[in-house]
Design goal:
mainly alpha; single chain
Length: 182
Amino acid sequence: MDMNTIAQYGPAAIALGTFVEGETAVLLGGAGVALGLFDFWTVAGAAFAGSMAGDQFFFWLGRLKGAAYLAAHPRFGAKVARVGSLLLRHRLPLLGTYRFIYGMRGAIPFAFGVSELCGRFFLAANLFTATLWSLSITLLGLYAGKFLTDPSIVARLPLFGAGAALLFGVAVLLRRRIRARS
């Protein structure tokens, strides 16, 4: 998803983008707020709606069709099996943070659906985390958009890039030195 798609379709594109893995759509929507294209609450609301809908879809897919779906899709079943032990031991922390784990947004709600977790409990946790996620990622996009549209910052971007490359190089050298001593 790119800024042109977000600008053209607005909240619908953000909601659709957040249905599965939508950080990019929300970040671009937040940048659109900084550019004056959207209202903050419209972007955050679209992110919330799409995120909630996606997570509830995968939860209820797991609850209603979990066993049959896992038998028919072994690749997705492997992800759910990997998450299974974490799910049983760390339900509350996982419910609070799964939304922030890249690549697991569909698998973890599906796994919760397959488990014996109460649907109302998942809904309540999902409401809380979707609110927190949509607001925080929209704010991050807003401030990134403000940062990147400031002419004094844009003029210094090559300097920031060189500094980041230098820090990365130093980190790689330090890591090699530490490994060599071990």
